[in-house]
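It is worth pausing here to work through a concrete case rather than discussing structure prediction in the abstract. The textbook approach is simple: state the sequence, then state the predicted structure, then interpret. We follow exactly that order.
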Amino acid sequence: KFRFASLQSDFGQTILTQFNLPTDKFNSFILLENDQVYTRSTGALRMLAHLKGWKWTRALNIIPPFIRDGVYKIISKYRYRWFGKKDACMVPGADLQDRFIQ
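Step two, the predicted structure:
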């Protein structure tokens, strides 16, 4: 359902510029859907709603964005402590390469 790109990549920089988002800050997640960009908690919730078993997350959109984004910032701040951090990025195998935009 999804293809991925680094915000630092040519594609990522083009999207950031096109939607007037900072091109030098890479601390957020964005979702490009139907020629519209969604950031932080809104982007994450919209993405989750596309996944099997996660449609219930649509209900979380009733929470005001400033509260959702506050929770998003806490998760992003502590994610490495909670989930760990790899020393290197995964290099996708041939079976996954078409899911990554260069």
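Step three, interpretation. The longest helix spans residues 65-83. Residues 1 and 50 are 8 Å apart (CA to CA).
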